[in-house]
Amino acid sequence: MTPPDPDAVTLVRDHTVYACVTGSRAFGLAAEGSDTDRRGVFLAPTPLFWRFTKPPTHVEGPAEEQFSWELERFCELALRANPHVLECLHSPLVEHADATGRELLALRGAFLSRLAYDSFTGYALSQRRRLEADVRTHGAPRWKHAMHLLRLLAAARDLLRTGTLTVEVGDAREPLLAVKRGEVPWAEVEARMARRAAECERALSRTPLPAAPDRRRVEDFLVRARRASALGAR
Asked: Which H, E and C letters describe 158-217, residue by residue?
């Protein structure tokens, strides 16, 4: 990992509004030796946007397995139903949330919409193609990636059915770990993927999710955060 710019490190250190653990530990799929993936959101001070050189939209590090987005970029991605960003926002393992972060968490429902169908299933399809390429080239997929693809499709199905994004896999933990260990034949894994994709499509026709996210509500929040920063509240 390339060492981040010192100014970027300062943004993450001094201006993080929300931080959480994502990945296997948040999903309930961690094993001994699993990484701890940390994600966060920082609010760059508004005066930094008055310069020709704008603050970064994201920062990798400074710790291992740490990645942070600037608030505006995070909101943009969440409005597009980016799976990784939405799962970050719904992680059960929150490590930090200041007043702005708590307001962001309270807005979680405003980001959810039927766009999740295309974003989640589209990402899953791209990952499945990679797995199929691995099978053709190496005779087997990357089983860990296969496990996470099944998990993602199940999360998308449940989101479309209920209108709520649940990150933890619950009772699905052991069947998913069996896939990760390579104990389930690839043909069966493919069949499960196809069933999950079909379940997502059926759920879309009856989903309680709105057609589009509440962009105005999110934008109002962003404007308030920028204004408070400009007035020296941060």
From this structure: HHHHHCCCCCCCHHHHHHHHHHHCCCCCHHHHHHHHHHHHHHHHHHHCCCCCCCCCCHHH
